[in-house]
Amino acid sequence: MERTFIAIKPDGTNRGLIGEIIARFEKKGYKLVAMKAVKPSKELAETHYDALKEKPFFGPLVEFICSGLVIAMVWEGTGVVKTGRQMIGATNPLESAPGTIRGDLGIDVGRNVIHGSDAVETAEREIGIWFKPEELVDWDQTVKQWIYE
Ligand code: GTP
Ligand code: MG
């Protein structure tokens, strides 16, 4: 089953949005497979955002991600990478549609509340960076017969 890496950034945790964000993924029907609270090291943040290292905002972005509590999660379900990104909304919250997490909860691109993997391969890479294999929980989502046909 497809998996994605979702992280609530330090602005989201400081603003008390953890429950709101987790609730959206839960209510959608996706299955939580792993979750932990982390204050990321610079090395972890730089590795995570490696593809952006030439961007002018890379330094501030890494500093921001390391500045406080991050809730790192793995969510599982059909189409979770693409649909997760749609639930999150566009990178710039001023352009994210109302009803999306960023569209409803943010204003500034540098404070856009949440991260979601942008492709299945990226998700596999990011899950490997943030979690050890044994931290991914094998459990039965007993309501799945009411979520999937
Ligand atoms: P993530 O889910 O966090 O990876 O966001 P994304 O995939 O929607 O965007 P992208 O991977 O291109 O950028 C990663 C993060 O860098 C964004 O979430 C923003 O917080 C930040 N970022 C992207 N573009 C800009 C920018 O033009 N200015 C600033 N200050 N930050 C940016
Ligand atoms: Mg991205």
TrEMBL record:
InterPro entries: NDK-like_dom, NDK-like_dom_sf, Nucleoside_diP_kinase, Nucleoside_diP_kinase_AS
Residue numbers annotated as active site: 115
Gene3D superfamilies tied to this protein: Nucleoside diphosphate kinase-like domain
The entry's keywords: ATP-binding, Kinase, Nucleotide-binding, Transferase
Chain coiled-coil ranges: none
Residue ranges constituting the Nucleoside diphosphate kinase-like domain according to the UniProt record: 1-138
Pfam family, one: NDK
Residues that, per the record, bind ATP: 9, 57, 85, 91, 102, 112
Nucleotide-binding among keywords: yes
Cofactor: Mg(2+)
SUPFAM superfamilies: Nucleoside diphosphate kinase, NDK
SMART domains to which the protein is assigned, alphabetical: NDK (SM00562)
One record GO biological process: GTP biosynthetic process
Keyword Thylakoid: no
GO function term, MF aspect, one: ATP binding
Domain of life, source organism: Eukaryota
EC number of the protein: 2.7.4.6
Catalysed conversion reaction: a 2'-deoxyribonucleoside 5'-diphosphate + ATP = a 2'-deoxyribonucleoside 5'-triphosphate + ADP
Family, as annotated: Belongs to the NDK family.
Protein name in UniProt: Nucleoside diphosphate kinase
Protein's organism: Rhodosorus marinus
Organism classification: Eukaryota, Rhodophyta, Stylonematophyceae, Stylonematales, Stylonemataceae
